[in-house]
């Protein structure tokens, strides 16, 4: 595996591990943004936190099984496209919108490097 892909994979996995853990534990800092986007608090554990954590663990496992990293990064790209749609739909441009943009960029770059 190329060093740039390894570094990017670890960065994307770390970001999603942090974000997924915050969602699973319903961190107070994320609640206002989720509420403004119209996301019920009951969705924080599943599907939001669970899917982010699954993507992060898939990326980490992909360090040994490259096809798994490609699948996980593709899943994260889909997840964050939907997250951005959710924020745009209600004109929510809180900091969480821009974090979702950053996470989408990380997942997209990881996907692009993993398929090249």
From TrEMBL:
Subcellular location, record wording: Membrane
Main location class: membrane
UniProt keywords, alphabetically: Membrane, Transmembrane, Transmembrane helix
Membrane-topology descriptor: Multi-pass membrane protein
Transmembrane segments: 43-65, 72-90, 96-115
InterPro entries for this protein: DoxX (IPR032808)
UniProt KW Nucleus keyword: no
Protein name per the record: DoxX family protein
Organism: Dactylosporangium darangshiense
């Amino acid at each position: 595996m190329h060093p740039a892909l390894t570094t990017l994979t670890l960065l994307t996995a770390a970001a999603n591990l942090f974000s997924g853990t915050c969602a699973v534990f319903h961190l107070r800092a994320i609640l206002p943004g989720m509420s403004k986007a119209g996301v019920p608090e009951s969705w924080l554990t599943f599907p939001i936190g669970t899917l982010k954590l699954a993507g992060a663990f898939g990326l980490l496992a992909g360090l040994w099984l490259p096809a798994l990293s490609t699948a996980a990064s593709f899943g994260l790209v889909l997840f964050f496209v939907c997250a951005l749609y959710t924020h745009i739909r209600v004109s929510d441009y809180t900091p969480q919108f821009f974090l979702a943009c950053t996470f989408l960029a990380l997942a997209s770059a990881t996907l692009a490097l993993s398929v090249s």
